[in-house]
């Protein structure tokens, strides 16, 4: 159970309760692409409006002088908008007549439909990230994580903290208040991947006797403190003081043998405490 106390991924924890760096990168990239396309379309549209305005100011002789083959961008713009030639407008004329104003049955511009389809894809990606796979927290969950991280940071900076143990000599606490503190932290920061009952989700099951890095109090304390390299389990040493790490580890050990429903199968080596 080396991936102890996952918070969804190492990036989640390292951003103190926010979405992962990878998720933020993809969301930002998607947003940047969408904004860039919108800016490009608007810029081209404005240029065409300016060109049309200039054409309105030109004399017939000037227009005739520029009546040669349209340029590349003009042809591209016409294609993007699916313009119909003036001589074909009669074929798409509707019967509607509003004070002498005729209505054409034009299709929506292809660029507009393309942007619309892009927003659908973006919405699907957003739905999968936030509501299906839940790889990033919603606002309320993010707020709770940030508040818990701030509380953990405050506790870790207590100036008068007295510690009479280290990672080799630490023993489980039986104090109800300290166990409750460990439970609160576990359910706030670790349940996303281990579930609130410890049965495991993205992270391993913490309620059986199988562990990847040892199941003693000292082993569990070290994993919380130092993390596990090359995994999603980060080091909490910079955010939790030794007493609170002990509280969390102690609470975790109370989950042994609870056998919650839907728990993940064993993962690691069997650990039997010495009597």
TrEMBL record:
Q: Does the keyword Ribosomal protein apply?
A: no
**What does the record list as coiled-coil region(s)?**
none
Top-level taxon in the UniProt lineage: Bacteria
**One Pfam family for this entry, by name?**
FixP_N
Ranges of residues in domain Cytochrome c? 177-256
Residue stretches spanning the membrane: 23-47, 115-133
The keyword Cell inner membrane is annotated on this UniProt entry: no
Which GO molecular function terms does the record list?
Answer: electron transfer activity; heme binding; metal ion binding
Q: Which InterPro entries match?
A: CcoP_N (IPR032858), CcoP_N_sf (IPR038414), Cyt_c-like_dom (IPR009056), Cyt_c-like_dom_sf (IPR036909), Cytochrome_c_Oxidase_Subunit (IPR050597)
Looking up Gene3D superfamilies in the UniProt record yields:
6.10.280.130, Cytochrome c-like domain
Q: Which UniProt keywords apply?
A: Heme, Iron, Membrane, Metal-binding, Transmembrane, Transmembrane helix
What name goes with this protein?
Cytochrome c oxidase cbb3-type subunit 3
Q: Which organism is it from?
A: Roseivirga pacifica
